[in-house]
Amino acid sequence: MQQEHLLWELEESILSRIPLKSVARFRSVCKRWNTLLNDLKFINNHLARPQFVLISESKTCSVDVNFDGPSIEVHDLPSDIPNYEHRMVMRMHYCEGLLIYATSTGFGICNPWLRRIRWIKSKPSFCWFIGMGYDYSKPDNHYKIFGSRMNYDTRYVNTTEVGSNAWKSYEFSSHSWSMICSSYTISLNGTLYWIAVKKSARQPLILSFDFSIESLKPYCNLPGKNDLSNVRVLEIYRRDRFSILEQDWNTRNIEIWVTKDTIKNGDGESVEWMKFMNVLVPIWSNIVVDDLERPSYFIDEKSNGLALCCINKNGNTCIYIVKGDKFHEIEINELVGFGTRHLTYYPSFVPLPTGANDAKSHFAFPRGVEATNGVGENEWDDGFFDNVKKISVGQSDTGVAFVKFDYSNNKAVVIGAVHGNATHITYDDVLIDDDDYIEAVEGTYNDNYITSLTFRLHKEK
User: Fold this and answer.
1) Domain assignment present for 43
2) Domain residues for 216?
3) Same domain, yes or no, for 318 and 435?
C-alpha cells in the first residue's frame, strides 16, 4: 500500500511538469490519469491561474496576469460569433470551466482552454438570459439555460435544457427582495448565484436558483458596509467558495471578503465570511466606480494578489494588479472600440455539452483552405475528434490537389471529406498508430500552388 501511494505521488509530480497546453491529451491514457487531471486539488495546484476573457469591437482575447512582473499577456481567441455585431445585445457567463455567449439567435458554449465551442440554435424566450447551471442531483451534468424578467413583485423565470427548444416557466414572489445586476451571475455546483437586496432593511444578500429543486430564494447575507451606492461583485474563490468585492463609491477603495468554507447547495445560513484584503486606491490611478461597468476580478492564492479588469476614466480597458502595498495599472492597447465585455475564466478540461440543435462551429481551428487549382479558395473545418487515423494527400502535375483526413472518435473511425479536386489524381496515404499523433505540418509553395506537404509525427522524432 505504501508503494502504491508513493507511485501515485510520483505520477502527480510528473504530470504537473507537462506543458499546460499538452495536458488535455494525457487524460485519454487511462482512467487513473483522467481522474487525477480532473481533480479539483490538482487543477488548483498545477493548472494555470484564472484569466480574463474579453470581447471588444476589434478582437476577442484572453489575458494572463503575471503577478511577479507584474505584467500581462494578451492571446487572441477566434471571434466569429454567428449573426452578431458588436453593438448588439450579448451576455457572457462562466459556468465551471465553460464560457457561454448568449445572443438573439442562440447560445455559444465554449471551453477557451481547449479552444472548442458549440453553437446551439434556440427559440427565444420572453426572459433575459441570466446564466447556465445543472441539476446536481443527477449523475451527469444536464446543463440548463436560465432566463428571468421582473413584473412588479413577481419574478418570471424560464429554463431550458441545452439543445432543447422546450422552455419551462415559473413564477416566484419577490415582494421581500429585489434582484440587482442580474448580468453578474456566477455558477457553482450547478446552482446560480447573484446579488440581490432585502427590501425591508435595504441590506445586500445573495440570491440563488437551484435547478435540482427548481427554487429561487435568498441564500445568505453579504458582509461589508450596508451602503447600496457601493459597487459589489460576486466571484468564485478557489473554485469552490465565494468572494465579494466592494468598492466605495467615494474613495474608490476596495474590500475583498471570502467565505471560510466551501459552498454547499441548499441552505446558506451557516456561511461565514472573512475579510481577505483592503486595497487603498492611489490618487494617481484612473480606476473608476461604475455601477454599469463593474469589474471582473480574481484572487491569486500563491501571491495573495488581486487582479481586476475594468474600464478607466477614459473608457479604456485596463488590468489592475495589486500585490502587497503595490498597485499597478496596465492598459490593454490592443482593444479598440466601445463597450468591451469581460469576465473571469477558470481553465478546465470540462467537455462541451451536446445538443439537438447544434449549429455549425465557428471556433474550431486550425482551419484548412481547399485546393482549387490556384483559383479561389474555400475554408474547411472537419470538426473535433480524438485523433487522426489516416492522411491522404493527392498530387497533380502542379502540386497538392487535395487532402483528406480520417479520424477516430470514441474508438469509431470517422471518414473525413475530400478537400480539393480528387478526380484522376494519384495520392499517398499515411497511417497513424493509436499511440501517435501529428506534431507539425510543413510545406512548400509557389505563387499559385502548394507544391508539397510533410506531416511530422510524434514517434518519428
Assistant:
1) no
2) 49-345
3) no
Grid coordinates of 257: 471578503
Long-range contacts of 297-304 (CB under 8 A, 24+ apart): 297/233, 297/235, 297/245, 297/344, 298/49, 298/50, 298/235, 298/344, 299/237, 299/243, 299/256, 299/258, 300/49, 300/65, 300/67, 301/44, 301/238, 302/49, 302/67, 303/67, 303/68, 304/277
- 21/54 same-domain check: no
Q: With left for phi above 0 and alpha for psi between -120 and 50, is residue 41 left, alpha or beta?
A: alpha
Residue-wise pLDDT for 54-89, tens only, equals 888 777 888 999 998 899 988 887 666 665 666 665
pTM of the model: 0.71
Judge if 110 and 140 occupy the same domain: yes
Residue 445 neighbours by CB distance under 10 Å: 12
Q: Count of domains in the chain?
A: 3
Q: Which residue has the cell 500563491?
A: 302
Q: What region does 30 belong to: left with phi over 0, alpha with psi -120 to 50, or beta?
A: beta
